[in-house]
Amino acid sequence: MASLKDGKLKLEWAREHMPVLKIIAERFSEEKTFKGLRIGMALHVEAKTGVLALTLRESGAKVRLASCNPLSTDDDVVAALRDLGMEVYAKKGESKEEYYDNLYRVLELNPDIIIDDGGDLTTLLHTEFKDIEVLGGNEETTTGVIRLKNMQRRGILRFPMFDVNDARMKHLFDNRYGTGQSTLDGIMSATNLTIAGKTVVVAGYGWCGRGIAMRMRGMGADVIVTEIDPVKAIEARMDGFRVMRMIDAVKQADFVVTATGMKDVVRDEHFLVAKDGCIFANAGHFDNEVSKEALERLSEEKREVRRFVEEYKIGDKKLYLLGDGRLINLVAGQGHPAEIMDMSFSIQALTAEHIAKNHHNLEPKVYAVPDEIDYEVARLKLRSMGIDIDELTEEQKRYLEEWKEGT
Ligand code: ADE
């Protein structure tokens, strides 16, 4: 049962720990930055997202919010947001139909600006809702950006979209430290097992994979990385991890965690050689990185042994899948820490402001977040952390701009 009281406390706690967004919210609310604009959001509906949605509404926007994943919603937060009059369409454990119905409700607002995570809302605006004129939008995550760039390449993108994921103040912290910490949180909450002394295979050494590998090592795991990119594979090796093919790694694994954005990273041949008791979890956006279809097909029996832990029997062997293969940090964990989402959502808020003010000069293409926004969020974050840094002197600035022969 959803608890309104808990939801309100979660929102309050998140807001208190999102100091950068708080400063931005104060300015937006004075300036009524989004007055007269409709904003449609499809994000993981939990406390930090609630704070962003409220910020946009307090800045004059009409806001509707749905989830970008059927299993990542925090129902307490939904109850609290609804009590505050927010139009939220989400619940934990939506069917596919419910999930899409909720996205439809957001699109029925006729949004001027969209904030998407994973690309489903954007895709609908290019299929069933082609008539809605969108001024522009933001995409939060790697998977969504890949989809956007494919649309751009095919020449079908209808409106400007900003790639929030590649802003430095997003991926360097959210993907690395956010996913690193919250994936461990999700795995530990789901299993209540030890990480120390375990062999953990991390598939993918992008920013998310790096974060997971780093934090798993910090907890005392023996970490193996699998990659398809030779450069990243060398980086992983030089960062001190063992690197090998999944087919070899999975034979040793106690845990396998995927963070690749690719489907079927763990498939038939891997399940067949996996060690008895191996636990599979996914930290990527979609639930296709660990092939559930193969697990279902190969196994004679399946049962839920704990909340978010499914046991599959293949011969004498038991394998486990966490959170139905959906992103474990939000299914069984609490999502990224508030101070991390503070940075990501501040980038989202300032980029939405950029769209509101500059949409006349934007074309239907994928844009990088302007550097000024990245730096503004970095400066505010440093301030909130009480850290002062050096500045170049005038002479040093001149030195940078001069051409000189080496002496
Ligand atoms: N909370 C809200 N959005 C999130 C995301 N994309 N990843 C992790 N936690 C989140």
Verbal overview:
Helix content is about 45%, strand content about 15%. The mean pLDDT is about 95. With about 400 residues, it is α/β, with parallel strands linked by helices. The chain has two domains: about 5-170 and about 335-385, Rossmann fold (3-Layer(aba) Sandwich), CATH 3.40.50.1480; about 180-330, 3-Layer(aba) Sandwich (Rossmann fold), CATH 3.40.50. The strands form two sheets. It has an eight-stranded mixed β-sheet, sandwiched between helices. Helix 3 (about 45-60) links the parallel strand 1 (about 40) and strand 2. The longest helix is centred in the middle third of the chain and has 24 residues, at about 170-190. The chain is built from 17 helices and 15 strands.
Key traits:
single chain; 407 residues; alpha/beta; Rossmann fold; eight-stranded mixed beta sheet; seven-stranded parallel beta sheet; 15 strands; 46% helix; globular
Write the layout of secondary structure elements.
Blueprint: H1 4-16, H2 19-31, E1 38-42, H3 47-58, E2 62-66, H4 75-83, E3 87-89, H5 96-107, E4 113-116, H6 120-124, E5 136-139, H7 142-153, E6 161-163, H8 168-191, E7 199-203, H9 207-218, E8 222-226, H10 230-238, E9 242-243, H11 246-249, E10 255-258, H12 268-273, E11 279-282, H13 292-298, E12 301-306, E13 309-314, E14 317-322, H14 328-331, H15 338-358, E15 366-368, H16 371-385, H17 394-401
Parallel strand pairs: 1-2, 1-4, 2-3, 4-5, 5-6, 6-15, 7-8, 7-10, 8-9, 10-11, 11-14
Antiparallel strand pairs: 12-13, 13-14
Helix pairs in contact: 1-3, 1-4, 2-3, 2-15, 3-15, 8-9, 8-15, 15-16
Bound molecules: adenine.
